[in-house]
């Protein structure tokens, strides 16, 4: 059972950057909305929504709602139910600093328990009364005459003064346009839209893709499938996964001494930070990653030819570096085939590779990722002047300090552009932004400001810096692979934060009134 430890108000947003602003709770005289209007509306009940809601309540705010198209808390951890789903950042780090969990089953939490953790954290933070399930933001439009956001949902119109998107960037599955796939007579599953009632036992299965979901699905499905073929366009660098189950005595220790959890968080955080050197193309770090991953491959795959096919030839980090102990081992099985080319067409129940190989299958598992750089919600957020967020982002615009987009008043964008990490925990990013947003809202409250939007100068300075700093990283150099980190409309790096996670918090984890025009 997941029972997080609610860290008292406010021991900090992590020990390495304590934030004195959060030590006190104010009485804003607000009450929890009962209708369709709130001072603040947050979209998304994943880590972003729970973190924002938790910090808002801890500061004393009550006039906010969290709407989600899903019917429960958990965000992507509710959506992803595929066999083997787990995180790839150690769970004591991949959790909220103010909702520590002594009960993680393993070093890397499993998907279902992360989802349970988020539900328990939302409950602990008294967020259930703020939550509106099955309430998708279909359109949101800024109304400058009344300083209101109008949000269309299946439950009717909602309005708010401040809109915070916490809608995630790994939420809308990318379905590849493969000729003939519509006529496939078997079952098609996407990793993020899993049909848990479908039994893969004894089936002939094709897995498409070799990214983060595939390396978890493949070893989980291989033992139950009759035959399994993995379509690999690009092999992955895979690191060992040190993933012991926590013993009862360890959990008891964590419960009695939450400082031990904090110590683990700090250790994991700084170890992960070291990996960023590889993303900056520092030769020693590149060599370190290559040695670690290629030795891992060598030690696990028996057949030299398969090993060679699984060996990446591009610069490490160009695609996400993965962690697994059982992915490579799956290729030692007699019933698993590595097809070293893309799936290019489907003819009835035959899947055909770019190399011309043909396989008869009963099920296709798409591990083809998400529409990351072109999030669907962005096309539905209108600034009242004929522009959507998607228009601005498609031209390469980025929210100032990742927090707010010029041209879109009273809008905050949490875990949206340039917030993904290739080397550390997203929760660190989300907490940093949530802290800044709450400070901004406090500032408005304290000074009586009702409208805010990044200044032209702050917007330009930020975008100039971001583009310059993104240069000479593994994602923007010719690393020999193409990844989803770049928006192909603008050619800009938009999915990833191009620096250390620590520096993200230093730059974006606070609010500076000088960045905003306010009225
Ligand atoms: C399988 C998987 C494994 C991952 N593993 C890791 C990991 O190990 N480490 C790591 O750092 N990161 C990992 N991530 C990245 C993950 O996206 C973040 O860690 C984090 O969970 C994001 O939280 P979020 O609340 O911002 O977004 P999400 O969890 O994606 O939640 C977004 C919510 O917004 C809702 N939503 C979307 N659009 C709308 C709309 N229009 N109206 C209303 N609601 C809407 C969705 O229903 C969803 O509930 C993983 C992601 C996936 C999919």
TrEMBL record:
<protein>
    <submittedName>
        <fullName>NAD(P)/FAD-dependent oxidoreductase</fullName>
    </submittedName>
</protein>
<dbReference type="Pfam" id="PF13450">
    <property type="entry name" value="NAD_binding_8"/>
</dbReference>
<comment type="similarity">
    <text>Belongs to the FAD-binding monooxygenase family.</text>
</comment>
<keyword id="KW-0285">Flavoprotein</keyword>
<keyword id="KW-0274">FAD</keyword>
<dbReference type="InterPro" id="IPR036188">
    <property type="entry name" value="FAD/NAD-bd_sf"/>
</dbReference>
<dbReference type="InterPro" id="IPR020946">
    <property type="entry name" value="Flavin_mOase-like"/>
</dbReference>
<dbReference type="InterPro" id="IPR051209">
    <property type="entry name" value="FAD-bind_Monooxygenase_sf"/>
</dbReference>
<keyword id="KW-0560">Oxidoreductase</keyword>
<dbReference type="Pfam" id="PF00743">
    <property type="entry name" value="FMO-like"/>
</dbReference>
């Amino acid at each position: 059972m997941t029972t997080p430890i609610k860290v008292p108000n406010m021991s900090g947003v992590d020990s390495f950057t304590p934030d004195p602003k959060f030590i006190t709770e104010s009485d804003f005289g607000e009450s929890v909305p009962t209708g369709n209007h709130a001072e603040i509306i947050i979209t998304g009940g994943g880590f972003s929504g729970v973190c924002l809601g938790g910090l808002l309540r801890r500061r004393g705010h009550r006039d906010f709602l969290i709407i989600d198209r899903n019917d429960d808390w958990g965000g992507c951890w509710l959506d992803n139910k595929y066999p083997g789903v787990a995180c790839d950042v150690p769970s004591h780090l991949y959790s909220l600093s103010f909702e520590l969990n002594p009960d993680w089953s393993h070093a890397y939490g499993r998907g279902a328990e992360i989802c349970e953790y988020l539900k328990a954290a939302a409950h602990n933070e008294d967020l259930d009364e703020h939550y509106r399930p099955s309430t998708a933001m279909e359109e949101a439009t800024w109304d400058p005459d009344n300083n209101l956001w109008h949000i269309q949902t299946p439950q009717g119109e909602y309005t708010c003064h401040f809109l915070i998107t916490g809608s995630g960037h790994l939420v809308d599955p990318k379905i590849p346009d493969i000729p003939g796939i519509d006529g496939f007579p078997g079952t098609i599953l996407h990793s993020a839209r899993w049909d848990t009632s479908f039994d893969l036992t004894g089936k002939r299965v094709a897995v498409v893709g070799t990214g983060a979901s595939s390396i978890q699905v493949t070893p989980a499905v291989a033992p139950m499938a009759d035959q399994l073929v993995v379509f690999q366009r690009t092999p992955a660098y895979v690191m060992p996964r040190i993933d012991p189950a926590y013993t009862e005595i360890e959990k008891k220790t964590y419960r009695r001494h939450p400082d031990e959890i904090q110590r683990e968080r700090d250790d994991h955080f700084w170890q992960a930070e070291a990996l960023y050197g590889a993303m900056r193309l520092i030769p020693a770090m590149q060599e370190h990653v290559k040695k670690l991953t290629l030795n891992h491959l060598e030690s696990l795959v028996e057949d030299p030819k398969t090993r060679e096919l699984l060996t990446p030839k591009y610069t490490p980090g160009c695609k996400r570096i993965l962690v697994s102990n059982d992915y490579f081992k799956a290729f030692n099985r007699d019933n698993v085939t590595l097809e070293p080319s893309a799936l290019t067409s489907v003819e009835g129940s035959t899947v055909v590779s770019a190399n011309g190989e043909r396989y008869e299958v009963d099920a296709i598992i798409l591990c083809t990722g998400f529409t990351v750089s072109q999030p669907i919600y962005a096309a539905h957020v209108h600034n009242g002047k004929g522009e959507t967020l998607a228009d601005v982002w498609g031209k390469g615009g980025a929210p100032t300090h990742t927090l707010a987009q010029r041209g879109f008043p009273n809008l905050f964008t949490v875990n949206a552009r340039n917030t993904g990490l290739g080397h550390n925990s997203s929760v660190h990013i989300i907490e940093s932004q949530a802290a800044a947003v709450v400070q901004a809202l406090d500032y408005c409250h304290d000074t009586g400001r009702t409208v805010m939007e990044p200044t032209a100068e702050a917007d330009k300075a930020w975008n100039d810096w971001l583009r310059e700093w993104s240069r000479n990283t593994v994602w923007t150099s010719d690393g020999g692979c193409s990844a989803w980190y770049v928006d192909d409309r603008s050619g800009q790096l938009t999915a990833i934060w191009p620096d250390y996670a620590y520096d993200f918090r230093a730059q974006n984890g606070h609010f500076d009134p000088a960045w905003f025009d306010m009225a």
